[in-house]
Amino acid sequence: MATLNNYKIYCETEDIWVTKWIDSTEDVLDYCPNNNTHTVTSGSVAIASTMTDDATPVGLADELRDRSGKLRIHQTSRALGTGTCWMGVGDDCSDPHNVGGGEPMTFEYNTASGTTTLTKYIDYNCVNNETWLHEGYITWKNAHFDTLTLEMVPRLTTYTASSGTYYNLYGGYMVVPAAGDGTIAITSDITQQNGGLVYMPDNDLGEAPTAFWNADWNTSTKEFENITAAPYGDGRYNMFTVELVLARFLNKAPFLASGFIVLSSSDTDQLGHGMRLKMMFDIADHNGTEEIVAIACIMCLHRDKSC
Q1: SS3 at position 112
Q2: What is the 3-state secondary structure (H, E, C) of 159-207?
Q3: Model confidence over 228-279: pLDDT tens digits?
């Protein structure tokens, strides 16, 4: 029966802990699983957890039990190395190290204004602050079937038509590598944290994404460097030129009168740097009544840094 060890190692290049399951008969982890050219902290490797190949945790009988003999467990959705925080604002995207200095997750409007849709973008700085979305909380006042939609969309890369470049436009929405025969030129400064590079996390099976660019983040200069093409789709970043819906967490949830709701979940989704939470509040017909309608949201996040 094989034993699997979930090793963790600190990647200095990405400034995060990275994990990988490895068979106990293989060598221990001494590189970054995201990119073996990254710099890792010597001596930081450790076993986060262990299990057998039949998914039975090793040493289960030795786990802590209460006086009645029942196994004591701790349910958590947190990724290893992160903490839990509740935020009613985003981060300030002009400072890649900012936490909590961004746009508030609130709307307030007068039904007599004639507005039909209110939109906000909430940014999170994840380039050196691993961030996972867990669940949300919403409170509202004086609603009359107004609806809220929450989507994850990418920060956009701008471009212009050109020739003989190293960039092509795939499907009209994504920048992919070219070999000097490209048809577009990038006009965004993609070395900047808000320049358009979007980090694509692994899925929950540990499978790598399809991504066409690699880059390293320099925590000193606060810029991306070593931006290189990954023409076979085995990179970590993508660049989008059109706003696509990467995920939709809440789809036209209706609100009536005044109230509060918990969007409870036992799951988490990792937010890649460059992904933006788009809030759309659609205003319904209030039967000609003039009133002030308000809505406010709080997101429960698991983050490496909460301040």
Answers
A1: helix
A2: EEEEEEEEEEEECCCEEEEEEEEEEEEECCCCCCCCCCEEECCCCCCCC
A3: 999 999 999 999 999 999 999 999 999 999 999 999 988 899 999 999 999 9
- Residue 141 — very low, low, confident or very high, per pLDDT cuts 50/70/90? very high
As separate numbers, helices (DSSP H) first and strands (DSSP E) second, the chain gives: 0, 17
Burial grade of 88 (CB within 10 A; 0-12, 13-18, 19 or more): middle
CA distance 272 to 152: 10
Q: What is the pLDDT of residues 8-56, one digit of tens each?
A: 888 888 888 888 888 766 667 888 888 888 999 888 888 877 776 555 4
| Alpha carbon 113 to its chain's center | 35
One-letter amino acid of 43:
G
Distance CA 247, CA 292 (A): 31
Tokens of 16: 């995060």
Distance CA 269, CA 51 (A): 23
What pTM, to 2 d.p., does this model score? 0.76
Domain 83-154+245-303 in this protein, CATH class:
mainly beta
Sign of the dihedral through C-alpha 243, 245, 248, 254? positive
Which SS3 state, helix, strand or coil, does residue 111 take? helix
Domain limits of the chain? Answer: 3-62, 83-154+245-303, 159-240
Q: Under the phi-then-psi rule, with left for phi > 0, alpha for psi from -120 to 50, and beta for the rest, what region is 8? A: beta
